[in-house]
Design a protein that fits this description.
203 residues; mainly beta; six-stranded antiparallel β-sheet; three-stranded antiparallel β-sheet; 9% helix; 21% strand; globular
């Protein structure tokens, strides 16, 4: 079990080799030298990039069309843009009820929205990258996420190194990650997808 895993400094291939990790979103300080005091990390804030995304704005999160209207419930995280690919996720977090790990993987592999196939169950780092640690009632309780659900856990595709019959689930309230039995209905699916970026076209 990995309790209260405050993974503030983890981010998938963000901005190229050697890029500084993203901010956690926490801005309230409880003492000198804590995360809220230092706000260590890249970008202006959790939501604002230090430079423009390919659509010409500094929004960290947009739809696949560069807007903040999420018709297909696809969220693109431009903090992960490396010049050719970018990570996106599905923002409706009640696509499934609590299911077993294999079912979560299978759901993501067959998922389709907006004409986009090729989804997968997010790994631990990919899911945590979307967590906003400033939110008092849940790391996914922010626009553009919807239906995050208090106390809800989400399967990652990451298997526990302590017990391979378990995989890591991430809970948005309490901000912890736990090794859960793969055969237990312990979490929901969290679909992610790597998009290829050509100009302002994502494929």
């Amino acid at each position: 079990m990995i309790n209260n895993l405050y993974i503030k400094a983890i981010n998938p291939s963000a901005g190229g080799v050697g890029a500084t990790l993203m901010k956690t979103g926490q801005t309230t300080s409880y003492r000198t030298g804590d995360d809220g005091d230092l706000e260590a990390g890249r970008a202006t804030s959790f939501f604002v990039l230090a430079s423009n995304n390919p659509f010409g704005n500094t929004n960290r999160f947009t739809s696949e069309l560069g807007t903040q209207t999420y018709t297909n419930n696809i969220v693109i995280d431009w903090s992960t843009f490396n010049g050719s690919t970018v990570l996106g996720c599905q923002n409706n977090l009640t696509l499934t009820n609590n299911i077993i790990w294999n079912a979560a993987i299978d759901f993501c592999l067959t998922y389709s929205t907006g004409g986009f196939l090729g989804w997968r169950l997010g790994n631990l780092i990919e899911i945590i990258n979307f967590m906003n640690f400033s939110q008092p009632i849940g790391a996914f309780n922010y626009v553009p996420f919807i239906n995050s659900g208090l106390g809800t856990s989400y399967w990652s595709s990451t298997t526990s190194n302590f017990n391979t019959a378990q995989a890591i689930t991430v809970r948005g309230v309490g901000y912890d990650a736990t090794a859960s039995a793969k055969t237990g209905a312990a979490g929901r699916a969290f679909p992610v997808r790597t998009f290829t970026v050509t100009g302002t076209t994502l494929s």
